[in-house]
Write a structure and sequence with these properties.
By secondary structure, the protein is of the alpha/beta class. Helix content is about 25%, strand content about 20%. It has a 6-stranded mixed β-sheet, covered by helices on one side. A hairpin with a 3-residue loop joins strand 3 and strand 4. The longest helix has 12 residues. The protein is globular.
């Protein structure tokens, strides 16, 4: 297992977790791929640009037979209802930003890993999007790779 190999060489701190960054064009299924890795639906989906800021997911393998999430920058509250997680992500994802939303997920079914969901690359901005949205997304992507 990945986490066993990492722990055997001293990687125990979440900041040292391997990181996978998902990059692609808008509406190409990036968030769905991350949900498949986690084994849980929790990321809002829809038409157009849904992910408007980086979502940094830190997965923690735990021995308890339960799955929960914490938004460390918002509240220390343990959330076991992943529909509530989806709602909190939606409420904190209303405008384009390079400031990440951090989410920690604890589960016996994941490996210790960090996943980053980035806004999709946009070819032609819509009227509702800021004029500099393409540059904002490009700069955000560059920051994570």
């Amino acid at each position: 297992k990945v986490q066993d190999a990492l722990k055997s060489v001293g990687y125990t701190d979440a900041e040292r977790y391997p990181q996978i960054v998902v990059i692609g064009i808008q509406s190409s299924g990036k968030s769905s791929v991350l949900e498949m890795i986690v084994g849980q639906e929790f990321i809002p989906k829809g038409e157009g640009t849904v992910t408007k800021r980086p979502l940094v997911l830190t997965l923690h393998n735990v021995s308890e037979n339960q799955r929960w999430a914490i938004f460390p920058d918002i509240s220390p509250q343990k959330l076991t209802d992943f529909e509530q997680v989806k709602l909190i992500i939606s409420k904190n994802n209303v405008k384009f930003s390079d400031i990440p939303l951090r989410l920690d997920i604890y589960s016996p079914d994941v490996v210790d890993l960090r996943l980053v969901d980035l806004p999709g690359l946009i070819q032609i901005p819509t009227r509702e999007q800021p004029e500099d949205v393409r540059d904002l997304i490009k700069n955000t992507v560059t920051r994570y790779i």
